[in-house]
Amino acid sequence: MTLPPHDMTTADRYAVAGNPVEHSRSPLIHAQFAQQTGQAVAYGRLLCPLDAFKAQILAFAAAGAKGCNVTVPFKFEAFELAARRTPRAELAQAANTLRFDPPSDGGWLADNTDGVGLARDITLNAGVTLAGRRVLLLGAGGASAGVLGPLIEAGPAEVVVANRTVDKAQAIVDRHATWAAQHGVRLSAHGLQDPGEAFDVFINGTAASLSGSGVPVGPQVLRPGALALDMMYGPAAQAFLDWARAHGAVARDGLGMLVEQAAESFTLWRGVRPDTAPVLAHMRALVDGPTHP
Ligand code: ATR
Questions:
Q1: What is the pTM of this model?
Q2: C-alpha 208 – ligand 1 centre gap (Å)
Q3: Ligand 1 centroid to 207 CA: how many Å?
Q4: For ligand 1, which residues put their CB under 6 angstroms from it?
């Protein structure tokens, strides 16, 4: 069912806040969710000066906005800004979603929907089971830290976090140790020389493909037919996807994760879960461009 667009002058306002932010696909994704669910939502972009994130967000909220998504480099500041944080935001120590609840409702809520978005994309969209599987997470920066809690919650047998700087991998593993034990998941930190082998799912959360230096581990990390997923999409993911396919893996980019994390934020704000399938198909066509015979 296609619903008519709402009168945007009365719609509840949201935005994606970041720097840079002009290339963000989030406004397009949320516009489709709003249309599909009949929610009166107007979602824009909020470019924040690097030294004035807090002031921009406070002004946006004071003008009546209901919440925002937050992208690089402000996810840590967003986490600090909120009165309340979800457990998955606490584990990540970073937030990609703020809901501007009034003090009478407990104050601003910070959430991190990246990890649940990733887990839902893997299990629901890619149709790959995480429960009982062995997972390799490459990288220990903000992207990896943002997804580890929900990955553990999906119940794999083991998660290895491998990073160039082992101490950083160890730090996020230590932070998630209790969570992993509660979920019966073996969790360990490794360097790039000994990441282990034959994983069922390999997730790239590093910026290595952006720097053009290639995939920094050998193909022994893949079991035949493994899922290899880069959290990025478009040209930034291409080298990783080519590598994965050349070594017999099922390659997947981060577009599904992008749509799923957006759906989780929308659900948190509006109490209605949008259907992601048609939105992901639309975004896929936009990103991949027209296919010619
Ligand atoms: P983000 O917040 O996007 O995760 P980040 O915090 O800068 O960005 O982290 C980038 C990740 O990519 C880190 O895990 C980094 O490894 P280090 O912790 O050792 O710096 C990893 N990375 C970046 N370039 C890399 C490369 N050429 N080879 C291997 N790992 C790389």
A1: 0.95
A2: 6
A3: 5
A4: 139-143, 163-165, 168, 205-208, 211, 213, 216
131: DSSP letter: T
Query: Which structure tokens are listed for 104?
Result: 């009478």
What pLDDT score was predicted for residue 58?
A: 98
Nearest CA to ligand 1 atom 9: 141
Q: Which residue is it, tokens 């509660």?
A: 182
| Number of Cβ atoms within 10 Å of the Cβ of 281 | 11
- State the 10-residue block means of pLDDT for the chain, 293 residues long: 58 98 97 98 98 98 98 97 97 97 97 98 98 98 96 98 98 98 98 97 86 88 98 92 96 98 98 98 90 56
> Residue 220 carries which DSSP code?
G
Residue 2 corresponds to which amino acid? T
Q: How far is residue 27's CA from residue 71's CA, in Å, rounded to a whole number?
A: 13
Let me know: does 201 contact 135? Beta carbons within 8 Å.
Answer: yes
Q: Say if residues 47 and 22 touch (Cβ distance below 8 Å).
A: yes
| Residue 54: active-site member | no
